[in-house]
Amino acid sequence: MDYVKPGEVLGAMIETGENKANLSILQLLVKGFLGGAILAFATTLALTATQQTSLGIVGAVIFPVGFVIIVLLGLELVTGSFALIPLAVLERRVSVKRMLSSFGWVILGHVIGCAVYAILYGLTITKMGTDLSHPLVQALIQTSEAKTLAYKHMGGSGLALVTIKAVLCNWMVTLGVVMAMTSKSTAGKIAAMWLPILIFFAQGFEHAVVNMFVIPAGMLLGANVSLADWWLWNQIPVLIGNFLGGVVFTGLMLYVAQKGTLRHKVGVRAAATETVEPDGRALSVAGERL
């Protein structure tokens, strides 16, 4: 059967977190670059669909295509790693320093990938900077200002609001990452991960990597947003909120819920691979313990 049981999914989460943390800097940068650019592609696709149909839900339904590509190709999305690598740290397979280093290099890759796509897309919809009449120009400008200046005008309440929206967002995004592990088939993975991503996008929650594209893209097109507005009133609090949402509500809660199952499976597997001689000495079937 395609279905993977929850206890096995937890083991896959920990192993995946360990593997992600042990990637080289070049791999983290390249995978982060591709992950950021592909999610930016999906964002403009969703904005285009929303503009053409005047229905936000249509954009939300098709946006997960970018997430699916990233997961199936094994690329990096730091928001997904927020739920996985901390579990590897909890299991003492990865150090905190290694985790933070992984996050940092992937974020840098995201910023570069999103910036490259923002420049190329901006040149496309403005016909090499000669025509600002394309409806997506104003959509990106308005989105950029709404994601920064609107929170800035609210002051401290704005920071709290953007952080909460980021927590809710990555609760669903990381759930999408985990749901992809519940099936062994490609079709099953796509269907499982599609649902949580649709939920977050349809409700306008705050996703750090999406914002690494839409905010600077709007700035390039003329939005009245500064670098300080971008990072202080959105990017930094959203990264913090995304981390909290991923590690607390998906990573740690699933870890607590399924940890007993994981230990049981490990114990059964160990017992099944060992025999004991009359003198009590354990022999491994694989010959690893003598």
From TrEMBL:
Record's keyword annotation contains Cell cycle: no
Alphabetic keyword roster: Membrane, Transmembrane, Transmembrane helix
Transmembrane segments: 28-49, 61-90, 102-123, 159-181, 193-215, 235-257
Location in or out of the cell: Membrane
Superkingdom to which the source organism belongs: Bacteria
Family statement: Belongs to the FNT transporter (TC 1.A.16) family.
Name assigned to this protein: Formate/nitrite transporter family protein
